[in-house]
Amino acid sequence: RSFDDLGIGELVKEHAYDHLCSVPASELALKYMGRPLPNAALLGGFAAMTGRLTLDAVAQAIRERFPGKVGAANVLAAEAAYAHVKKVCQGSVHA
Q1: Burial class of residue 15 in the structure, from the number of CB atoms within 10 Å of its CB (0-12 exposed, 13-18 middle, 19+ buried)
Q2: How far is CA 77 from CA 12, 18, 82, in A?
Q3: What is the model's pTM?
Q4: Which of 82, 63, 83 is nearest to 73 (CA)?
Q5: How high is the pLDDT of residue 77?
Q6: pLDDT digits over 36-56, tens only?
Q7: Radius of gyration of the chain (CA)
Q8: What is the DSSP letter of 17?
Q9: With contact defined as beta carbons under 8 Å apart, do 90 and 51 qualify?
Q10: Cβ–Cβ contacts within 10 Å for residue 16, how many?
């Protein structure tokens, strides 16, 4: 959704647009985990947007904290968010 759709259009005007990107984290969590828990997806988006950590590091940390199916589902959500940022916000991504 756009920043205006999210109700933060005025707030984001105070920031450089190329430093901002919205990620459908709750929707991705619902898709991959069946619950609207966006934390893993947000980590994937953060990794893509900032370059401060790798997607592999995010996935490894998730799997360590949540082994098995739960971890695997969270990793899928993080990977999808990472791909979203790289594709949709490509012009906005800064390392």
Answers
A1: exposed
A2: 25, 24, 9
A3: 0.84
A4: 63
A5: 98
A6: 999 999 999 999 988 999 999
A7: 14
A8: G
A9: no
A10: 9
CA-wise closest residue to 63 among 74, 54, 52:
74
Interatomic CA distance for residues 42 and 44, integer angstroms = 5
User: How many beta carbons lie within 10 A of that of residue 95, not counting itself?
Assistant: 7
Sequence letter at residue 52? R
Token pair, residue 36, equals: 């609207």
Q: Which two tokens stand for residue 74?
A: 């969270």
Rounded to 10°, the helix 68-88/39-50 angle is 40
Question: What does the block give as tokens for 12?
Answer: 């984001």
Place of tokens 């999210």: 6
